[in-house]
Design goal:
Layout: H1 16-24, H2 69-91, H3 95-118, H4 130-153, H5 161-168, H6 170-178, H7 181-187, H8 198-202
Helix pairs in contact: 2-4, 3-4
Transmembrane segments: 69-90, 102-121, 127-151, 171-191
Keywords: Membrane, Transmembrane, Transmembrane helix
Protein name: Heparan-alpha-glucosaminide N-acetyltransferase catalytic domain-containing protein
C-alpha cells in the first residue's frame, strides 16, 4: 500500500498520475519496475536495482506507468503543438511570417513553463507535467525556427545532413534503441576483451 500524506506531492508513487492510473487501470496493470526503484531511497545498489534499504518509503515497491493516462494526454498535446508548427508552413508563404509564428508562441511557452516551474508545477518527464510539455514544445519550436532559417533561408544544408537522415529514419532509430538492438550491436564490437567497447569508451 502506498501512503501519501502531502497534498500536491509530485514524488514517486504519490502523485495524481499514479493515483489515477491505480484507480482506473488497477495496480496489476501498471509497470512493475519503475525508474525510481533505482534511486538511493529505494536501492542499496543505487543507481542500479538492488535490495531495499531498511528505511525505504512505502512507494518504493509501488508500480508506476510512465505512459499513464494523464501522461499520455500531455504527450498528445505535444504532438498537436508540433502539428500546429507544420500548419504554419502550409498557411504562410513568406519566410518572415513563418519564423515569427514559430518564435512568438515558442518564447511564450518557455516563459510560461519556467513560471509554472517557479510557482510549484515542476518540470517532470515521468509525469509529463504541463510545464515539461510547454518547455519541450517551446524549445522544439525555437530549434525548428533556427534550422529553418539556416537551411531554407540561407541555404546552409550541409551542416544538417545528419539531422535530415535521422528525421527520415526516426522510427527505425527508435525501434533499434527501445528494443536494445543498437546497444547490443555496439557492445559486440570490442578490442582485446569485451569490456573494451564503444560504450565503455564513451563513459
Amino acid at each position: 500500500q502506498v501512503k501519501c500524506g502531502v497534498r500536491g506531492d509530485s514524488g514517486p508513487g504519490c502523485n495524481a498520475v499514479g493515483m489515477i492510473d491505480r484507480k482506473i487501470l488497477g495496480i496489476q496493470h501498471l509497470y512493475g519496475r519503475p525508474v525510481y526503484a533505482r534511486s538511493q531511497q529505494c536501492s542499496i545498489d543505487s543507481p542500479q536495482n538492488g535490495p531495499l534499504p531498511p528505511d525505504a518509503p512505502s512507494w518504493c515497491q509501488a508500480p508506476f506507468d510512465p505512459e499513464g493516462l494523464l501522461s499520455s494526454v500531455m504527450a498528445i498535446v505535444t504532438c498537436l503543438i508540433g502539428l500546429q508548427y507544420g500548419h504554419i508552413i502550409v498557411h504562410f508563404q513568406k519566410h518572415r511570417e513563418r519564423i515569427m509564428h514559430w518564435l512568438v508562441p515558442s518564447f511564450g511557452m518557455l516563459v510560461l513553463a519556467f513560471a509554472m516551474d517557479f510557482f510549484g508545477m515542476h518540470m517532470n518527464k515521468p509525469l509529463y507535467t504541463v510545464s515539461y510539455t510547454l518547455c519541450t514544445a517551446g524549445t522544439a519550436g525555437l530549434l525548428f525556427a533556427g534550422i529553418y532559417t539556416l537551411v531554407d533561408l540561407y541555404g546552409y544544408r550541409r551542416p544538417t545532413i545528419a539531422m535530415e537522415w535521422m528525421g527520415m529514419h526516426a522510427l527505425m532509430i527508435f525501434v533499434l534503441i527501445a528494443c536494445n538492438i543498437l546497444p547490443i550491436f555496439i557492445h559486440g564490437f570490442y578490442w582485446g576483451e569485451p569490456n573494451n567497447n564503444l560504450v565503455s569508451f564513451c563513459r
